[in-house]
Amino acid sequence: MKKIMMRIIGKQASDGDQDQMEFVTEGELAERNGALYLIYEESEISGMPGCKTRLKIKDNYISMKRLGTKTIPAGTEMVFEPGKVFTGPYDTPYGSFEMEVATKEVINELTAEGTGRVRIDYKMSLKGLVESHNLLCIEML
After folding, report:
1. Closest CA to 105 of 87, 90, 120, 93
2. At a CB cut-off of 8 Å and minimum separation 6, what does 64 contact?
3. What whole-number distance in Å separates Cα of residue 40 and Cα of residue 90?
4. Model confidence over 129-138: pLDDT tens digits?
5. Are strands 85-92 and 35-41 parallel, antiparallel or unpaired?
6. 117 pairs with which residues across the strands?
7. pLDDT in tens, 65-111
8. Cα separation, 123 vs 9, whole angstroms
9. Distance between CA atoms of 42 and 85, rounded to whole angstroms?
10. 127: which residues sit within 8 A by CB, 6+ positions away?
């Protein structure tokens, strides 16, 4: 595992409202079986301090797995692949919700040396609660 610094920018738009969060954090980067793995801890800004996020990145396919803690029992897994829809549970400290993720675009410019960026443009629906358009960008510093 290689230690890296990254900037994480998340944008969310729903019902005319727009939110943006941005933070810089240390993470780890590894390459295995042709895929890059990016691991980092969430911050207070994301609303999930102490939770770990792991991205598996290969070409234009990204899977994201978030693991909770004892105090924040949140966990979820999402798959981002352009033109495809992923469904599954979205676990939060407030309960589990049925989630649907429709990926519009994945830009993967990340290198095994720890340079570049990853950008995901997707729509997410938590059944009965909210629908949003999201952008997630992770830039290596």
Report:
1. 120
2. 53, 54, 55, 77, 78, 79, 80
3. 19
4. 789 999 999 9
5. unpaired
6. 139
7. 988 665 555 668 899 999 999 999 887 667 788 999 999 999 999 99
8. 16
9. 25
10. 97, 98, 99, 100
Q: Which two tokens stand for residue 50?
A: 């102490």
CA dihedral sign of residues 58, 61, 65, 66: positive
Q: 47 Cβ partners below 8 Å, 6+ apart? A: none
DSSP 62-122: EEEEEE--SSS--EEEEEE-TT-EEEEEEEETTEEEEEEEEEEEEEE---TTS-SEEEEEE
Look-up: residue for tokens 């911050």?
43
What 3-state DSSP class applies to 135?
Answer: strand
8 Å CB contact between 141 and 27: no
Amino acid at 38: L
Predicted TM-score of the model (pTM): 0.88
Task: For residues 120 and 128, give the distance between their C-alpha atoms in angstroms, rounded to a whole number.
Answer: 24
Q: Which residue has the tokens 């999930």?
A: 48
